[in-house]
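Bench notes, afternoon.
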Amino acid sequence: MDYQRCVKLLGDSMSEECGIIGVYSSEKRELARSVCYGLYALQHRGQEACGIALSSDNKIVHHKSLGLVSEVFVDSLVNSLPEADIAVGHVRYSASTQDKSIQNAQPLVFNGKRGKFAVVSNSSIINAKQLKAGLLEENILFQTSLDSEVFGVLINKFSKNGYLDGVRHAVEMIEGSFSTLIMTRSKLIAVRDKFGIRPLVLGKIGLDDYVVASETTALDAVGATYVRDLEPGEILVISSKGLESIKWSNETKHAFCIFEHVYFARPDSVIEGQSVYKARRDSGRLLAKNFPVEADIVSGVPESANVAARGYSEESGIPFIEALTKNSYVGRTFIKPNQGQRESAVKIKLNAIKANVEGKRVILVDDSIVRGTTSKKIVQMLRDAGAKEVHLRIASPIVKHPCFLGVDMQTYNQLIGAYRNAEQICDIIGADSLAFLDIDMLEEACSNGHYPHGFCTGCFTGKYPVEMDMKELDKQFND
């Protein structure tokens, strides 16, 4: 089961599922275009499908399709969509070739007990299979394979006294990670999982209009001012009455996914009060302090590791010079549905800059190593271009454990580091040396000394905020 991530070029990389945005306006206006701008800013979180739903004249209108935002929402289509006072949007990465279908694109629109409502979600519900089995026993049918549909069905089931009541009942039953927006004909409801694993931010436009999105970059794109991050375990209702915040969980073990800072988020985002750019730059600085090596140039694997590489360069005094160039017009290699396609795509996606590396000792900084296959190809690519030495520095720890909370690494057999140390990984990849940040260093870089609740670091440490039967889940995803 592959999820997504999109700023990076490599088949080695982790992936996350999607990006979401919702807009509430005090008056009807051209919200489809505003949501499109927000989805452009979140495109790095999913490129396989996108969609928008609008609440207009007591009706819900929606459009979704496979493809990039620019391919799906052409001007003629956007101009044909009605003005609205509430809208939600979604960009998605499909889990597999079987999962890549229009039915599995979002938003999901439900004909509920109290009228239509739409759901967009960035979620990984680890008990979705069990919940779905129980609902099927009640003769409830499903149209997709999405966790989000299970969420929506539960909301509808418990919505006798209103959809807010349905949301409150549903979140109590769900285990896992989620940031979700529910749009009714008169309300925008935002909800975040009790550990705050997935990000969700609130912004404001003018006096009475609000935006909720996965990242602050989406707020910037629609001209919204950042207000705050939603709290873990919070339901936020936006309506004509203003804002209503409901704390549905008093869980104190907050665990924000640390890979948002390492890799998922755009570098110009600010998450949980921390600049993503600064976190990555500080990671590179810590690499240089703790794992120095004599070299002629420092370079990053485009694009997500470039900031960490610059940090390494600043701290070490070794010049930052591009060793690799990318072809921006080729589909992203890490979202190919199988490893063979990923590896083939790398050959046309990346190329070494021979003039910059020939005869040089190169420090190559990357954000993470998951499978290892592409790292090996890149090291060899640099050697073929004449690099004298290639020293690999990784701005995160060794990934030793699967993640079932929304990251593309659900089985131990996917992970080069599951049963190997840095020296063994180095031998396989073929680098002259290899070093990883340890978890304390990474948390230092990502917290800026002020993050109060901690991070989810399960993929590094095996300690997850959610109790999981790892053997059973590993078997489930292998099957």
